Recover the amino acids of this structure.
């Protein structure tokens, strides 16, 4: 209990000294309990080496905020696209609640200035990492939900996140190349693509991942990106292009073989 009380005091003191009312002003929301907002900004690396409980990081608030974001996004899409089928709504939702979209929206709050990370993480540029910003963004939403309720979170999303939906869903990242490749491989080739991580290079805060795709035991394209997901998406995109090019190149031969079979069939009694 003593450690928890100490953490509470540290959070309150740090929040007021570090941000004053700056972040609240950017949010357009005044916290009744500012400790909630301070808590939402504590990355787990900040607690490493300190005599404080691990649960004091922002992960529980991030878990809550993620659920609130998903629910309000679903509600928004349901109302905004009344004629769209469930599949299209799900694709839009995946892009809107993605870590990439959340991290970009957090820039309007200058959230990287307020996130509390450990020294090692800070030296590696941790405050600007997409995953840390996305988690903090959702944690802030969770904090607002606990402090003010669902309507206040909806107001913030309507101001900062939902107006970006056209931009989010028109971006290249919205296209799910892995799903497109899987659909093609299952429907045309009766198989499932395999993704293999072949390289992981660079410092911790600037990693570059390289993944290659195997289809029916054959190696196709490689893709690279700042995380495994983006590397796989790029590899899938290139592989699908290669498979379709192969299919197109084989069309004349397939047609000739089909014609020969028909001619042979005509001569049979």
């Amino acid at each position: 209990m003593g450690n928890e009380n100490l953490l509470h005091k540290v959070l309150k003191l740090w929040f007021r000294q570090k941000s004053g009312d700056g972040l609240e002003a950017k949010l357009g929301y005044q916290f009744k309990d500012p400790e909630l907002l301070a808590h939402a900004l504590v990355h787990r690396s900040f607690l490493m080496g300190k005599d404080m409980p691990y649960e004091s990081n922002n992960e529980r608030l991030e878990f809550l905020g993620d659920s609130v974001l998903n629910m309000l996004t679903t509600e928004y899409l349901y109302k905004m696209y009344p004629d769209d089928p469930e599949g299209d709504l799900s694709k839009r939702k995946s892009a809107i609640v993605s870590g990439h979209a959340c991290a970009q929206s957090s820039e309007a709050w200058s959230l990287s200035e307020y996130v509390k990370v450990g020294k090692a993480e800070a030296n590696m540029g941790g405050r600007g990492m997409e995953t840390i910003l996305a988690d903090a963004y959702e944690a802030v939403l969770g904090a607002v939900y606990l402090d003010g309720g669902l309507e206040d979170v909806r107001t913030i999303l309507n101001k900062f996140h939902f107006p970006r939906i056209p931009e989010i869903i028109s971006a290249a990242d919205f296209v799910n190349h892995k799903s497109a490749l899987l659909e093609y491989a299952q429907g045309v080739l009766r198989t499932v693509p395999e993704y293999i991580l072949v390289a992981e290079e660079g410092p911790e805060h600037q990693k570059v991942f390289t993944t290659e795709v195997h289809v029916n035991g054959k190696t196709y394209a490689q893709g690279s990106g700042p995380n495994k997901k983006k590397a796989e998406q790029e590899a899938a995109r290139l592989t699908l292009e290669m498979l379709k090019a192969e299919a197109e190149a084989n069309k004349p031969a397939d047609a000739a073989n089909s014609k020969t079979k028909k001619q042979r069939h005509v001569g049979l009694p």
Q: What stands out?
A: Confidence is low (pLDDT under 50) at residues 265-269. Residues 179-266 form a domain with the Double Stranded RNA Binding Domain fold (CATH 3.30.160.20). The two ends are 93 Å apart (CA to CA). The chain is about 60% helix and 10% strand.
